[in-house]
Amino acid sequence: MSVRAWDGTTYDRISQTMEALGLEVLARLELEGGETVLDAGCGSGRITQALAERLPRGHVIALDESASMVDAARERLAGLVDDGKVEIRRGDLLELELPEPIDAILSTATFHWIADHERLFARLHTALRPGGRLVAQCGGEGNIDVLRSKAAAVLAHEPYARHFADWHAPWNYAAPEATRERLLAAGFATAECWLTPAPREPEQPREFLATIVLGPQVQQLPEALREPFMDEVLAALGDPVVVDYVRLNIEAVA
Fold first, then answer.
1. 188 domain-assigned
2. What is the pLDDT of residue 1?
C-alpha cells in the first residue's frame, strides 16, 4: 500500500470530513446484520465503529497497513474488540489473506493510495465468497485537481523545488471505466463504477491539508520548510478553503 506515514491520533481528531464521506458509502452496503465484513483500510476506526453497529450478529475485520492507524483504531474500538465484534489487523491489502471467505468488503478513502489496482482487486475477490459484495469509494480521476495544481505551483519554486526533483506522487486516481475493467478481469461477476464531485470545506483546514490531503508533499519537505509551505498554499487557496474532491465509487459482486 502507501509508503506515506500516518499519524493515527491526529487523523482521528480531524477526520470528520472523511467520516462523513465514509458514512455515505456505508449506507450503500446492504446488510442483514449477521455478516462478516472486512473494512479495507480502516484508518482510526471511525467507519469501522459505524459498520459494527449495523452488524448486531456479525463480525468486522478491520485492516490497515499503518501501525499508527491500527493503534488509534484499537483505542477507539477497545470495547468492540473485547466483545469479539471487531478484529483489528495490521496488514497490506496487496497481501490480503483471510482464513475463510467473507460476505462483504467496505473501503473508504484507501484505494487511491495503492498503485497496483489489478493485484488489489484480485486479492479482494479471493477474500469474498461467491456473491459477496465490494462497496468502496476513493479518490478518482480529477480528484483535487485544483488544490493540487495550486500546491504544485508553490512547490515549483525554491526553497521547495530542490526537494522534489526525484519525487513521485503516491496516489492513483483511477477512471471509472478502467476500474470496472480491472474488477471484471480480477474475477468479479458484475461491477459498476462512477465518479461523484464531492467538494468539502474542512473544519480545520490547515491541519486537514497538512495531515491528509497534502501529507505526502509536507512529509517530503524538511521540518523547517513545512509551515512556510502551508502558509503559501493556504494563501493561494484563499478563504474558505475548498477541497475539490472527486470520488470514485465502486460496487461489485464476486
1. yes
2. 37
* pLDDT tens digits, one per residue of 34-72: 999 999 999 999 999 999 999 999 999 999 999 999 999
- Residue 215, amino acid: G
Cis previous bond, 199, omega within 30: no
Q: What is the DSSP string of 111-163?
A: GGG-S-HHHHHHHHHHHEEEEEEEEEEEEBTTTTHHHHHHHHHHHTSTTTGGG
Residue 2 has pLDDT above 60, yes or no: no
| Spatial CA neighbour of 17 closest among 234, 244, 251 | 244
The two counts, helices (H) then strands (E), for the chain are: 11, 7
Instruction: Indicate whether 214 belongs to any domain.
Output: no
Alpha-carbon Rg for the chain in angstroms: 18
Task: Give the Cα separation of 188 and 198 in Å (integer).
Answer: 27
97 is a domain residue: yes
**Structural domain total, the chain:** 1
In which domain, by residue range, is 178 found? 8-143+170-203+242-253
How many CA atoms lie within 13 Å of 93's alpha carbon, on the beta-carbon side?
Answer: 31
pLDDT at 91: 96
Residue with cell 469479539: 84
At 19, which CATH number? Answer: 3.40.50.150
Contact 125, 50 (CB under 8 A): no
Query: Is 126 a domain residue?
Result: yes
